[in-house]
């Protein structure tokens, strides 16, 4: 075991040397200007027309950005929860996987923006424009989207639980695969014959009337192809597929990370550990805060009490690992293998478990508030937070799949 532990530390140190441990994941000078003064930021944008600004992973939680010109800005994985973005110009911005919870977006313009897998839970966006925006797989729970223009927007596979679309324009919008549309408020919303319903069928006057929405007929149009904006030039070569329909994740676009040291407990904060082999390693209480861990191999590893807060673990193999009491707050675990894993007492608050394998996993006492289990696989041997075994009804309620395993 000690040899494995030393191997992991050596791997970490090698990565620190190869990636440049003092690099940041965004343009710090530009971020400082934005935080200091929106007027100075807008003046800088005017002085540099056409320049793309890189604010990937920038921390902007609660910042007042009213009227900011953020058009075509790279804001992949940015933290914008609670921020004020009223009247902001976000046309063509790349907000892939950004956290925009409970933000104010009143009358903001996000036309053509990329918001794939963005979390807009509880945001207030009355009168905003999302014309032609790509919101595929976005979390739109409890949003206030009154009179918002979603015409020709991609809302495929979005979560719409108690979303308020009163008076919204959904003509030509793509809602294929959207979840909880029955719980959304569509009073007075406008749909058209070019609107695609969650079923994949085109909207009709009957469906619209059933949901208290208006129906208009317009000229037939071909389906829109939604392009994913490229990141800044230095990151293009890192672009990879992975999310549905070949969409890049954003987190794997570069390996520029903040400085971090190994001391006492293993510290991998902000590290790029994609495809690393840590199978069977003893990493209890290790710090993986915001680490890039795509396709990492950690089967059978001891991660008891580890900090995996907002770690990117897409496609990771965590089968039979010990994650008891681990912090997985907002962790990305899409398509991860957690079969037989011990998640007892773990914090999975707002974790993304889309497509994850949870067969036989133990989640007794785990915090799963606002966790996403869409397309995750559970079995009759999966233990729920209540301590009871998983059931098909529990899985169905959360959009997950259920396998009934009979013991011979």
Task: Quickly describe the structure.
With 408 residues, this protein is low in regular secondary structure. 12% of the residues lie in helices and 3% in strands.
Describe the structure.
The chain has helices at 2-19, 28-36, 38-47, 205-210, 392-397; strands at 190-192, 214-216, 377-379, 401-403. The chain has 408 residues and is largely without helices or strands. It has a domain at 1-25 and 270-408: 3 Solenoid (Pectate Lyase C-like). It has a two-stranded parallel sheet. Strands 3-4 form a two-stranded parallel ribbon. Helix 2 (28-36) crosses helix 3. The longest helix is centred in the first third of the chain and has 18 residues, at 2-19. Residues 1-24 and 230-264 have low confidence and may be disordered.
Pick out its properties.
408 residues; little secondary structure; Pectate Lyase C-like; two-stranded parallel sheet; 5 helices; 4 strands
Break the fold down into its secondary structure elements and pairings.
Layout: H1 2-19, H2 28-36, H3 38-47, E1 190-192, H4 205-210, E2 214-216, E3 377-379, H5 392-397, E4 401-403
Parallel strand pairs: 1-2, 3-4
Helix pairs in contact: 2-3
Structural class: little secondary structure
Helix content: 10-25%
Give the end-to-end Cα distance, rounded to a whole number of Å.
34 Å
Rg, rounded, reads 22 Å
What is the beta-strand fraction?
Answer: under 5%
Low-confidence stretches: 1-24, 230-264
CATH topology assignment of the domain at 1-25 and 270-408? Pectate Lyase C-like
Oligomer: single chain
Strand neighbour order, sheet with most strands: 1-2
Q: Could you say what the CATH architecture of the domain at 1-25 and 270-408 is?
A: 3 Solenoid
Largest sheet: 2 strands, parallel
CATH class of the domain at 1-25 and 270-408: Mainly Beta
Shape: globular
Mean pLDDT across all residues, rounded?
Answer: 85
User: How many strand elements?
Assistant: 4
Q: What are the secondary-structure elements, in order, as H or E?
A: HHHEHEEHE
Helix run count: 5
Q: Find the CATH superfamily of the domain at 1-25 and 270-408.
A: E3 ubiquitin-protein ligase SopA
